[in-house]
Amino acid sequence: MTDQPSSDTRKLMFYDPTEHRIRSFVTRAGRLSTAQARSIETLGPQFCIPYTKAPIALDEAFGRSAPTIFEIGFGMGETSAKIAALMPEKNFIGVEVHTPGVGSLLKLIGEQELQNLRLIQHDAVEVLTHMIAPLSLAGAHVFFPDPWHKARHNKRRLLQAPLVQLLASRIAPGGYLHCATDWQEYAEQMLAVLGAEPGLKNTADGYAPRPAYRPVTKFENRGVKLGHGVWDVVFEKV
C-alpha cells in the first residue's frame, strides 16, 4: 500500500486458503498516537463510513455526484491526501484495516480541509463485494501492496485473478485500474493477471509511465536513489 517506510510495515494482503478467497489484510497491532485517536474521535463520524452488507449511496455519502475512485490500503494516508487535494472534482474512498493509518489520514483530512475523501476500516474484498455496486467506480488504486517476495509466499499476493475480476466488475466502462509496485517480479505478475482479465485492456505497451496524479512517496524516492525500480500498471475498463 502507500506510504510504507519499510518492508515490515507494508499492508499485508493475501489469499486465505481457509476461506478460499483473497483477504486484504493480516491483523496486527499498531500504536495509536494521541493525535490519531483525537482525529478518529472528532473527524471519524463525518468522514468514516461504517461497514455494512449493503451498497453505499455514493451521492449521499459525499453530498454530491462526482466520479469515485476506490483505493485499497492507503497506509498512513499521505499519498491519498495528496491525490484527493490534487483532484477536488473527484470523490475518493480509501479502505484500510489498521487503526493508526485511519487516524493518520483523518488527521490529514482535517489539516488540509479535504471534503472529497471517505474512509472505510474493513477488509477491502468484503467492502467491494457488499458495499460497492457494479459499474459504479471511475477507477481504483492499489499502490505498493505487500510483495510476498519469497516464492513459497507468492500465492498470498493480493493481485490475483479473483480480486482483479471483482475490481473490474465494479469499474464503469472507460474507468481504470492503477497498480504500482517496487518489486519487478510482482510487476510482471500484475501485468499478467490484469492482462488476462477480459474486461480490462492495457493503456500502455507494457508498463505505464507514472501518472502525474500519483506522487512519489519518501519511501519510493529513497528506493529510486538507491537504484530500485518502480513499476506502474494502468488498465482501462472496456
Automatic annotation (TrEMBL):
Belongs to the class I-like SAM-binding methyltransferase superfamily. TrmB family. This is tRNA (guanine-N(7)-)-methyltransferase. Pathway: tRNA modification; N(7)-methylguanine-tRNA biosynthesis. It catalyses: guanosine(46) in tRNA + S-adenosyl-L-methionine = N(7)-methylguanosine(46) in tRNA + S-adenosyl-L-homocysteine. InterPro entries: SAM-dependent_MTases_sf (IPR029063), tRNA_(Gua-N-7)_MeTrfase_Trmb (IPR003358), tRNA_methyltr_TrmB_bact (IPR055361). S-adenosyl-L-methionine binds at E71, E96, D123, D146. Keywords: Methyltransferase, S-adenosyl-L-methionine, Transferase, tRNA processing. The lineage of its organism: Bacteria, Pseudomonadati, Pseudomonadota, Betaproteobacteria, Burkholderiales. Residues 152-157 are annotated as: Interaction with RNA. It is an enzyme of class 2 (transferase). It holds the Pfam family Methyltransf_4. The keyword Cytoplasm does not apply. The gene is trmB. It comes from the Bacteria. Its EC number is 2.1.1.33. Substrate binds at K150, D182, T217, K218, F219, E220. Catalyzes the formation of N(7)-methylguanine at position 46 (m7G46) in tRNA.
